[in-house]
Model the fold of this input.
Amino acid sequence: MNALPADLPAVLPARSVAVVLGTRPELVKLAELVRLLGPAARLIHTGQHYDEELSGSFLDELGLPEPEYLTGVGGQPRAVQVAAALAALDERFAAEPPLAVVVQGDTNAALSGALAANARDLPLVHVEAGLRSHDRDMPEEHNRVLIDRLADVLCAATPDNRELLRAEGVPDARIEVTGNPVVEVVRDHLPPAAERARLLATLGLAPDAYVLATTHRPENTDDPAALAAILDELAGLARELPVVLPLHPRTRARIEAAGLLPRLDGLTVLPPAGYGTFLALARHAALIVSDSGGIQEETTVLGRPLVVVRRSTERPESLADFADLVAPGPEIGRAARRRIAEGARGLRRLATLPSPYGDGTASRRIAGLIADLAAAPTAAHSPALATAA
Done:
């Protein structure tokens, strides 16, 4: 694996690596990479999910520079988001071509960045390549497959991700198993024990004696029956131990629109939490219930059990020990109670297991790959769409 050059600023001129993102999880996972790139990083936020509570405060907390913001993207349908961001990125890349473009994951912002790089024949690095749910009803599945076909450097988090890419015909030379940057981000941003203890005391919570829950995916929040089923199961758990629910603004709006506000009674509802606060709550939860993709990774670093409320997952590595995959409904409560019943022994077992997502050096590996790519600008890369006209 390529090491990070000591003279990275000399290898990569200022603003030479465009890092395109548009959501809070991307800010989290790319924070350490942006820090390592230093002045070379040109952070571009498409505004896909921009909200001061969900993205703005994260810039300061994660130590990120102020991005360039695109307009006309947030709140739009998927096709409009991609088209608007693509047009704006193309204009910027034409005026100031980067040496490389970096995208992470499977968001509309990431797809826009990948298409813009391809259209301008710019090398593309895909962080978290090779995830597959094999669920064609999931928009993110289409995004991640397309990005992987366009990428020149595919940073696979796990060996299984690499094998999925190989099975799809991606050449070995384009794939690197780097691990997932989430490992180092969690380790770096988990507050100290004393600070965590103060937070729990403020909320009246005892360690290992509450459930932490989140829900935000459209498959759950846009279906009133699914949303009601999730809230009902959380309410049932709340009769046995506290259930803490940091509530995404979009989820709250859907709850209100569906007339489900009374189902929040009995839950400890919090405003959206900063990243450090969320990690502190997750670190001491007896159980986490969530539909988030990122939380499936974070719990493996924190050593906590998770009930994943989704019809499919692109992260089966988490299911081996840390997580159970269930649909909205009674299986949430059954899976939750099985995990909680394992008690201290179950928590100790998970704490001894390594995360399947790497050793905490993914960002350094990826930065080294970017430096190598920029140092060889004539290296072949995929012009599939650029030459298709």
Summary: The chain is about 45% helix and 15% strand.
